[in-house]
Amino acid sequence: MLKSYLESFKLLTDQEIAEFIALTKLKVLDKGAFFIKEGEQCKEVGFLTSGILRSFFCSAQSEEITYCITFPNNLSTAYSSFISQQPSPENIQALVRSELLVVKKKDVERLAAGSLNWTRFLKQMAEQQYLELEKRLFLFQKEKAIKRYLDLMDHQPVYIQQIPLQYLASYLGITPRHLSRIRKEILL
To answer: Domain limits of the chain?
Structure first.
């Protein structure tokens, strides 16, 4: 899975991909375990091979706000902390038992220092992160909650059933009660 993911960018040689994969270590998170907690410095990036992760922060009222849900075959990291090496403002938690292939930041930096291809790859990853953020921002501003829910159902029908209602509602920017009404409306 990771090899196919890296190959899809069409930037890295087979040798560069093999070298990266050799640097990864398997990390297993039980349901409820954290990949990173708020206040910790993020020193690794993970490729989710199975499971579901949620990224969240706590509001001033100590309410957990889920802003990202990561499904298999995607990278996960506390990106701002990974870049700045400052304490993370977010938490990344396993919603179900999850497995990641993780690589240390120092190893990623070493690869980038030795290869223009890796520098290009990291640039493309940063651009993708920005585009995803912008897409989500526009979706929140333009679309109703039911459309956001239906889009998620279209893209992740298997996994959406495994996400607890309160986290899914938070991710969609609505209350659990509103999400229940949307689900009932869809079933009618």
So the answer is: 2-114
Task: Give the percent of the chain with pLDDT over 90.
Answer: 84
Distances (CA, A) of 66 to 53, 151, 178, 185: 10, 17, 16, 24
Q: What pLDDT digit, counting tens, does each position of 79-122 carry?
A: 999 999 999 999 999 999 999 999 999 999 999 999 999 999 99
- Give the per-residue pLDDT at 136: 87
CA atoms within 13 A on the CB side of 21: 15
Beta strands of the chain (E only): which ranges? 25-29, 34-36, 44-50, 53-58, 64-70, 74-76, 91-94, 98-104
Number of Cβ within 10 Å of residue 101's Cβ equals 19
Numbers of helices and strands, H then E, in the chain: 9, 8
Assigned CATH class of 2-114: mainly beta
Contact 121, 108 (CB under 8 A): no
